[in-house]
Amino acid sequence: MKKFLSTIILCLCGLCGMQAQIEGNEWYDGSIEYSAKKIAGGKILMNAMAEGEEHECVLVPTGKTETYRVTDGTNGYVNQYNGLTAKHIKKDGWDVICFYNSKNLLVALMENTNNFAMYYEKVTVDRWKQQVMGDYVYQDANIHVTCGSQSITVNDMTIPYEVVTFNGGATGYVEIKNTDTELDGIWEVIPTVDGIHIYSIQTGEFFSDWRRSGFDIRLTESNPNVGRFDYATRNFLTCKFFRHYKKSTLRLMRNAIMARNGYRFQSKDLQEYFGKEPWYKPAASNDNIKLSFIEQLNVELIKAEEENPEHDDYVTEE
Prior knowledge:
The protein is of the alpha+beta class. The chain has helices at residues 2-20, 120-132, 247-260, 268-275, 293-306, and strands at residues 26-28, 33-38, 44-50, 53-61, 67-71, 85-91, 94-100, 106-112, 134-138, 143-147, 151-154, 157-160, 162-166, 169-176, 185-191, 195-202, 211-221.
């Protein structure tokens, strides 16, 4: 009897702990950080402030374990997730809230920032850097460029840079200063299918006033032993991350995750594309291929974005 009661108590504690895993924590969606607070009826209020706008949504329990309907709050604040279904998933050391549309496609994700070993701004900046770090060539390989975590080396010249942040997240801009060269200033860095594209930026009084000034640099990745989208196998992606890429690039990114695991492709173009990569080692069979939790979610997110009819309205890749 004592053992039975102990088991019941442990189960109840586990259920309470499960509910508390959302409330009382901070959740990052790739651009802004939400706080979670329990309100009447077992609902959870998600609230954030970004660019002077308040964001709010309410997670309403559906009766299924860790599954919620997403509705508007009562204050009329911005709700990017209204009408979606949210599922709280804790797996392999990760703690996330996944948002699904009516077609059951994973369209957005929030990550518990308590998972971060350090302040979340540093983590998100480091993750952004992983998209652009690497070895490149410029102008028919006459100029070699290495993008590191803190500096850019152009042939023998090393130039320090800082990532520009806003609302605690990386913006896609870097600042170079105090070098007494024409490189001083703000630059926008856009990852592309074969490298990165860098634009000089004319700044204004407000962040929204920043504009490309016309001068740009195209760099082509030069190290064949590093997969172009290798970072997608290690870090969660977000819907805002995809806004740089054409759908054709997203398709390659999604399948690059599969290729990293040795997936054998049926499509001839994918066979040819990944067949040229020295790191690609096709498995004997696809039956035993198992993606990590991060990889599974990233594949789902990319696939949903490929089906997003509004995606082409905001692509920046050229």
